[in-house]
Amino acid sequence: MDTIDLRSDTVTHPTPEMREAMAHAIVGDDVYGEDPTVNQLEAEAAYMLGKEAGLFVTSGSMGNLVAIMTHCDGRTDEIIVGNKAHIFRYEAGSASTIGGVHVHTILNQPDGTLRLEDIRTAIREDDPHFPRTKLICLENTQGTIGGVAIPKSYIDAVGAIAKEHNLKLHIDGARIFNAATELDTPVHELVASADSVTFCLSKGLCAPVGSVLVGSRAFIDEARRIRKVLGGGMRQAGILAAAGLISLRMMTKRLHEDHATARAIGEGIQRIAGIHVKSIHTNFVFFELLPDAKLSPQKLIDTLDAEYRIKLALYPGYTHTFRIVTHYWVTPERAQVVIRALRTVLS
Questions:
Q1: Which H helix or E strand runs over 307?
Q2: What is residue 276's three-state secondary structure?
Q3: Mean pLDDT, to the nearest integer, of 62-85?
Q4: For the chain, how many helices (H) and strands (E)?
């Protein structure tokens, strides 16, 4: 049996169709703007999200940093972001250390949002004692909260605050297509109020590498310069972009299957002794291993790996909370294997 990897949707590998497309991709020098496959990917991504232009980058973290550095002038500028946001917690402090931008964190709510009152309070007065607020950053889906999808009405409300104060709104949309699927909202409508959006072609969309940053044409022109500053000129990147095109055209249309698989796993394990399912959202399941469980957390991890080739991991920073993330390679049949394995080892 192949390994069933539940640790994240970052573990996906390309589909056979992607490998075929990569093998036959037409390429050119993207730094010169001459890679036709990259150009096609950027154009299709921008169109899908309702923006004027796109930029192919190596990762979501690079896309977020490029967006921040493009929207902000650097030192003395500030962004507002949630205290559980990927930008703040998992991007090595790049906004500050590389971009020279101050990060103002406010509390993420249990539904992944930031309170509108908190955003308004965080916006700085025009005073030389303070950094200048330039950008509000949201994340959708909110991964650290458990894959919660943030609705259009809330994004529009934040967008209105940004416009009222002459600020910009960026969405870290690493899993924005999961959000759009869960909310049954066309993705271009969901992000209509955002000035820029980053989304991953990897993760649930299965491409091996890459993300796309979208926004206005003027914004992307400047972002391209920032990408070069960060060493992001990838030359014949069409080999990677070819997989990304399949991500856009095919994989975005099947994410409801991953959500159904997550729900099947979550509902299937919630009656197992020793397990408490904390949440099920989009392609995320969070569960806690209770103190009276038959195995310790590490023993559970080791047993599943050794006996069933199932990879599971504790959620970072927690001693008894696990995160399951479903994706293309976790089929409904494999989901049932996971449920049976957990029931067996904890019985």
A1: helix 297-308
A2: strand
A3: 96
A4: 14, 12
Question: Tens digits of per-residue pLDDT, 118-153?
Answer: 999 999 999 999 999 999 999 999 989 999 999 999
d(CA 65, CA 97): 11
pLDDT band with cut points at 50, 70 and 90 for residue 245: very high
Q: Which residues pair with 197 in a beta bridge?
A: 171, 214
Rounded CA gap, 82 and 274, in Å? 32
Element (H, E) at 286: strand 284-289
- Smallest CA-to-CA distance from 324 within 306, 344, 304 is with 304
Q: Shortest CA distance to 252 belongs to which of 190, 194, 195?
A: 190
Span 12-23, average pLDDT: 97
Using only C-alpha atoms, what is the Rg of the chain? 21
Contact assessment for residue 149 and residue 171, using Cβ atoms and an 8 Å cutoff: no
Note the pTM of the prediction, 2 decimals: 0.96
* Residue whose pair of structure tokens reads 């490029």 in the numeric block: 66
Kindly report the length of the chain.
347
pLDDT 10s digits, 32-70: 999 999 999 999 999 999 999 999 999 999 999 999 999
Half-sphere exposure in the Cβ direction for 115 (13 Å, CA): 8
d(C-alpha 206, C-alpha 202), whole Å:
5
Residue 223 has pLDDT above 80, yes or no: yes
One-letter amino acid at 266 equals G
Q: Which of 339, 321, 191 is nearest to 264 (CA)?
A: 339
